[in-house]
Predict the structure.
Amino acid sequence: MGKFVISEAKTGVKFDLKANNGEVIASSQVYKNEASCKKGIASVIKNADSQIEDQTAKEVVALKNPKYEVYQDKKGEYRFRLKAANGQIIATGEGYKALKSCLNGIASIQKNAPEAPIVKAKKEAAEKSAKKPAAKK
């Protein structure tokens, strides 16, 4: 089973949905606070089984939200974004070389999100080294 990992960002709080192997399946936007971040996680769980709109197909069949949108970025990589019923993007995936890999990422969300626990990220070791005592004069 995967897990949602909440972590600090420069301007707020974000989450990653990680698979059992630690790979990031999907990431969120940056939220102002942890409560809003948890609402985002709840929305991903609620919408995890949404249909897939393949925007790379020759004939795109537009679907109503909530949905996953699969598209190609400027580098030609396949990506997905999960949109809530209100049309807001609630999670995005990394770039994949192959469409099948992108679809496997969506399948992993559908499998992992519903039962995934929510945990807080451990503080970085870099933070500890940043708190070194000042040099003596």
Q: What stands out?
A: The chain has three helices and eight strands. Residues 34-47 form the longest helix (14 residues). Residues 124-137 have pLDDT under 50 and may be disordered.
